[in-house]
C-alpha cells in the first residue's frame, strides 16, 4: 500500500490534451512484462465479466477497465472461469475470453481494457470538453468517475440515447486499507480535455495508480428501459 501512496505522489496531476493511444503489440517491455506476472491464487468461480476480470487481477499492480453489456439482466451474463495458480495474467485474460467469447481484451497505454466484441456502447464515445476534479487518495476512483456524468455534454447524450442511471452496488466511495499505516491523505488532481468518456475513465484510473473502472449497461428494470452505471473496484 505504501507503494501505491508513492505512485500517487508522483502522479498528482494529469493533463490529457487528446485521445489516449491504443496499443496491442510493440508495447514497451515494462508494460507487457506486467501481464507475464503469475496469478498467485487458484481461480474457479462463476460470475459476470467484471467479477471474473477483477479476480484475475487480484493482488497485481495491473490497472483495467471493463465494459459489460447485458441485453436482459446481469445474472444471464454469468460464466464459469477456471485458471490454475501460477498462470500469467495474460493467460488468465485469454482464459476469460475463451470462457466468454462475447468479450475481447487489449491494452490501452498499459491499462487492460475488456469490451464486447459486438461493439462498445455509443455513450462511451461521447467527447467531453474539459473536466477537473480534486480530492485525496481516501476517495475511491468511483467519485470522479460518477462526477463525469454531471457534465452537460454527457447528460445531453444520456438523454438522447434514452438511458437511465442504475443504482450503484459497488464497494463504495471511500477506500479502506487493510492494516492501515497512519498518515496524511495525499492529494489527487484530475484534469482532462477533449477525451471520449471511455478514455476519460482510464485516465482517472491512471491518476490513482491502481484499480479498475466498470461500465455496465442492461435492461433489468421492470419497464425494460436501458440502464447504465459506472463504478470502480480496488
Task: Characterize the structure shown.
The protein is of the alpha/beta class and 234 residues long. The protein has one domain. Helix content is 27%, strand content 30%. It has seven helices and eleven strands. The strands form three sheets. The chain has a six-stranded mixed β-sheet, sandwiched between helices. Helix 3 (49-57) packs antiparallel against helix 4. The longest helix has 12 residues, at 197-208. The chain is globular, with a radius of gyration of 17 Å. Residues 1-30 and 168-178 have low confidence and may be disordered.
Distance between the termini: 12 Å
**Oligomeric state:** single chain
Low-confidence stretches: 1-30, 168-178
The secondary-structure class comes to alpha/beta
Number of strands: 11
Binned, the helix content reads 25-40%
Q: What's the overall geometry?
A: globular
Amino acid at each position: 500500500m505504501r507503494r501505491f501512496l508513492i505512485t500517487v505522489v508522483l502522479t498528482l496531476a494529469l493533463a490529457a490534451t487528446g485521445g489516449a493511444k491504443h496499443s496491442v503489440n510493440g508495447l514497451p517491455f515494462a508494460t507487457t512484462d506486467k501481464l507475464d506476472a503469475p496469478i498467485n491464487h487458484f481461480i474457479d468461480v462463476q460470475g459476470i465479466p467484471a467479477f471474473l476480470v477483477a479476480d484475475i487481477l487480484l493482488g497485481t499492480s495491473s490497472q483495467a477497465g471493463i465494459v459489460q453489456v447485458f441485453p436482459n439482466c446481469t445474472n444471464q451474463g454469468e460464466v464459469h472461469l477456471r485458471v490454475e495458480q501460477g498462470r500469467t495474467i495474460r493467460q488468465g485474460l485469454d482464459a476469460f475470453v475463451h470462457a466468454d467469447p462475447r468479450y475481447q481484451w487489449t491494452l490501452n497505454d498499459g491499462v487492460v481494457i475488456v469490451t464486447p466484441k459486438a461493439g462498445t456502447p455509443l455513450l462511451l464515445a461521447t467527447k467531453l470538453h474539459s473536466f477537473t476534479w480534486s480530492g485525496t487518495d481516501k476517495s475511491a476512483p468511483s467519485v470522479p468517475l460518477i462526477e463525469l456524468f454531471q457534465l452537460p455534454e454527457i447528460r445531453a447524450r444520456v438523454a438522447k440515447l434514452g438511458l437511465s442511471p442504475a443504482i450503484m452496488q459497488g464497494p463504495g466511495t471511500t477506500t479502506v486499507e487493510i492494516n492501515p499505516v497512519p498518515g496524511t491523505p495525499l492529494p489527487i488532481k484530475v484534469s482532462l480535455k477533449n477525451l471520449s468518456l471511455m478514455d476519460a475513465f482510464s485516465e482517472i484510473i491512471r491518476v490513482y495508480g491502481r484499480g479498475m473502472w466498470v461500465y455496465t449497461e442492461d435492461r433489468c428494470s421492470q419497464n425494460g428501459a436501458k440502464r447504465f452505471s459506472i463504478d470502480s473496484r480496488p
